[in-house]
Records
---
Amino acid sequence: MDVLLLSRLQFAVATLFHFLFVPLTLGLAVLLAIMETLYVKTGDKEYQRMAKFWGKLFLINFAVGVVTGITLEFQFGTNWSRYSSIVGDIFGSLLAIEATMAFFLESTFIAVWHFGWKRLSPLAHAVCIWLVAAASTFSAVWILIANSWMQHPVGYHEVWNEAVGMTRFELVNFFEVITQPYAIVQILHTLAGAYLLAGFFVMGVSAYNILRKKETLFFVRSFRMALIFGFIFSVATVGLGDLKGQEVGKYQPSKLAALESHWETETRAPFYLFLVPDPKNERNLFEFGKIPGGLSLLMGHSLDTEVVGLKDIPKEDRPPVTLTFLSFRIMVGLGFLFILLTVVGLFKRNKLEKSPGFLKIMVLALPLPYLSNEFGWIVAEVGRQPWIVYGKLRTADAVSRIAVSQVVPSLAAFILVYGLLGALAFYLIYHHARKGPAPLAP
Amino acid sequence: MLETTWFVLWGILWAAYFMLDGFDLGLGSLLPFVTKNEEEKRKVYASLGPFWDGNEVWLITAGGVTFAAFPKTYAILFSSLYSALMLLLFALILRGVSIEFRGKMQSARWKSFWDGGMFVGSLLAALLLGVAFANIFQGIPIDGEGVYHGTLLTLLNPYGLLGGLLFVALFLVHGALWLAVKTDGDIHRRAVSYAKGLWPVLAVVAVLFLVYTAFATNLYANYLDMPLLFVIPLLCVAGLFLSRIFLAGDKLWNAWFASSLTIVGAAMFGVMGLYPNLLPSSLDSAHSLTAFNTMSSPLTLKIMLGVTLVFVPLVIGYQVWVYRLFRHKVTAEDLAYEEAY
């Protein structure tokens, strides 16, 4: 166990845990804003009830998202100090902008929303939650621009800085950093994936209560709203995923080769429905369901697209194949499943109470978008290895020069504290989801 | 010029953070003492409910700006203070979760558990922030490679601990004054008497700190070089006395603002004394990290300046609006509705 591996594990734990709560914040904020807007427009108090009920679950979730986010900002400095020194000129500014532009707006207005039900007009109150939805989206935009820069570094040069006494990456073109196509696709794909999670969350909780025959009208209405939302973003996520794959293929050939476990550089590269990677022997142990030219088509929408194979990438530059490959396949499989489930839902939307089988499936499906979101991040980050800045800076050269004796306790603490926190948070959400909405005020 | 501008902005962000989260952390630390029953506890949470999260973001921003403007300082500071910062992090996590989870279940044991968390998280955070900053003023053992030759215990030296005590005292008074402003009745009276009782403790610790600073740090050098700067600690001391005077005259909002001045003054006293150092090395001043040997490129500093000059006033604007919207005292009626803590 060395500082590098421990720090990587710690960052993974912290980020994956944080990302259990972020997608729901992103998507549910929008759903809440829609509910409140409908209340303002129609005056139907049921919409206000919906906003209050789903809002209560939102607040539990949001709190954990906020506190676990601080960890990430600290960790760039604590465990990745060499990374921070070398690329802070670009990366640090993106994070600082995220704080000034997004975090303040989000944290300030969620509090106004929480406490302002009686102090603000329905319209002003609805504006607050729209601001929260916008702010959390801005936040995602900036952090994803930052991550995209790590995946495909642009707009910078590597230069010896005399005053600072080191060679570092310095910003040359800010506009290029914030508008590069890789980032735009990354942002849209991640947001869509988050929004679909919110849709499935609301559908899952609603289905659970419809099955218990608790507040059926309320939950049928919630389900149907979330269904449309979930359907749109399920389709969007897959479509944008295709675009994302192309960007990865263009700029991160080693990641693409790993997530497909593709070994030979070739055009008309085949796609296999099922395969078992054998990285030690630089091949796949077993391949099944060959679609000739399928991979080239997926990557570049043309049979002549050359797909670089892992064999042509030096061993020290290859990411962990099996983990990347499995994560990718699970994520994609789930992505298609979400489309299927929401399409079925669209057909059954007017007879939900008479479809207990479908409702049970939607309850069981609730955790699935959490898995797809997490596996997506595993593909993104593990697939980028051994680079912390793709092709330019290795993860091994980026870690802090600190003692193992410091990281072991902090890693253990994160696992323990986050484990407890996660259990408590999900228990609270479950408790209040079961409790249902407050009765309509007389 | 850019470096100095950013140095001062950096200081202001920390000062703003201490002024705002200071009352949350102080009030959280007072919780078990200043409240005698469930309703009073809920009033404490309600008094900081609309503000605490927005206050905490100033920390994220101060940290983010350290990263953006002085990345090498951010890197070496955070990795050197590793254990202290991890403890701070867990304290803040505990504090935040305690506030948000406490009211979500009706069991007395649940609430009591999170009240404990609120207390421990708030007090620990206040203490660690003070210890961290005192050590920054004093300098820490970093070498030419930016490697820290110490442990957590190194930071718990007398001056560091005094800094911790100072922050705790500052925040306790600040929190007590906030509670006094926001409440009526028994709890209000108790808050006032805590503020009055803690003030002399704060005054003594502050004097000790100011004196010890002359021996433990180089902070006064800048002030002696440019005596005009003495206006900063003077304002800090003025704030301290004014807060007591206003408290005696029952002008509680004024007292709280004076307490804010004390905190901002104390933070800026430290920051301007530190200049141009951001993190002095106690091993060799040649290894000290300064605004001039850790700053980002001029392009980054200029872009960040533009962003800051647009967004920070905006943030101040809407945060002031929120403080005004919720300026009323917390009443039993506020606690009665469903969404209250």
Note: Chain B has 14 helices and two strands.
---
Amino acid sequence: MSALLEVDSISRRFGGLNALRDGSFSINEDEIVGLIGPNGAGKTTCFNVVSGVMPPSAGAIRFKGRSIVGKRPSAIVGEGLVRTFQATTVFPNATVIENVMRGAFAATPISLLGSVFNTRAAQAALSTTLERCDLLLERLSLTRFRQRCAGELSYGSQRRLGVAIALAARPRLLMLDEPVAGLNPEEAADFGQLIKELHQTEQIAVLLVEHHMRLVMGLCHRIVVLDHGEKIAEGAPTEIRANPKVIEAYLGTEGIE
Amino acid sequence: MERSNSPAIDRNEPRLAAVRSILPGAAIAVLLMAALILPQLTPNQFYLHLANLVLLNAIFAISLGLIASVGQMSLMHSAFVAAGAYISALAALDLKIPPILGIVLAGFLTGLAAALIGKILLRLRGVYFVLVTFLAGQVFTLIALNWENVTHGANGLIGIPAISLLGFPLSTRLRFYYFALAAFILVATFIWLLMRSQYGRAFRSIAENMRLAESSGIDVSRYQIIAFALGSGIAGAAGAAMIHYVRFLSPDSFTFNDSIAYITMLVVGGRQTMIGGILGALFLTPLPEALRGFVGAQHIVYGAILLSVLLFLPGGLVSIGRAYFQKASETEPK
């Protein structure tokens, strides 16, 4: 069985800077993979290249066996590869439920003209989507904020809403960019639990960029380590933890608990 | 009021919701009746002319609002209005195409042109887009001025025929009023339907957070082009309709100042909803006439109004009414 996402020796240069050099990794269905490394290692560049925000300078990216290089980010979302962002992850002036409905835009099987004239088929499709979005809100404990403006929510709730928006697009692979940055330890632990649950119940693969080592080690089946744009290690959490190159570049000699 | 507990909401909400759901329909019905009998109340031709201009300006403003709804502000709106006017006027004068077909043709061709121009220009964002549309608008005026064997340059086009419906010419202000009213209702209904559909959802998402919209599967460039083409096409068709009413067209008929006037209407009325553009047109169209005693000071007054609205009423005139409604329904717990 081929992998869900195959990243085949991609590079990305910004002028003279090699932000990403010859990076290869793959993600199988039903797998949680961590992408770690020091700041400036190329993690976010890697995210941007894979999600279509910027093209790779070289290399191939295949999702479900088909190349996605050169496709627009919105088209890649339509294929089932959805990402979140480090910062701005919500539509601040829209209600929470509207935020999730917007996330479900591409996953709502509706003819646009039908929605203009509000045909019966369009109404049915929209109400199915609405039900699904309400379920997502419940999943992410956001139901009580349903009619609130997303901008009014606490930081932690906004991060959960960001995930709800991404999930609404029905991803096969969810890429999370530092989802627990800025959360307190308790919230971070809850978030980890949430990802684990979603992974199991929705059967989605997850690619996780995170500095929170306890979360990464506890959650991921496999970890890819980047440094200066190059992959320096890949393996199970226990292997990564013991890898001298990783310890030198990122984890530090004190290791982690 | 503010700290009411949830049972109170449950009791109030359905009644309030019922009132709110009937209110817009009732208001529209009353306004429509008023609009229909308005010309019967005044024999004054000048007021009738103003009413016609209000209707046309309202179309220009809400079509610009459609473009603004994807977060872009076009300073070449008047160029599309002028392009539509030239297309229909020339079609009528040189090709003897009936004006009513010319209007449709003008809408279609300006929309198509906007789609092509938009495909290039909409890669620019924010202030860059504004600046480039400003330049494109100026270029259009220069073309209209210098392409003399087609546009007759600064001399303009004269003798443009009035619209004729089944042999019935709309050659008086009163007759045109009903045509303009119908056109306005058609456009307003279309934009209203569009904005509450999935298109509207996509447009608002893009305006609010372009990056998140794209990564939610909304093709930003596609929907921006759609909004720009539809808004500009409507403007072109309305410009064509207007020129068969005014019946004289020169490069000075629609200039950069008109683009600014449409933006002012939109901002003064309120950018967020379609009613804003309509209110803006209603409020600002008669203003130059009211200020006729202060020729030269008109633009200062316009500028002062625009600034005061931006400073003190950023939501526009519409937000006054909305604040009232929100106060009435402020039973939701914090």
Note: Residues 1-10, 330-334 of chain B have pLDDT under 50 and may be disordered.
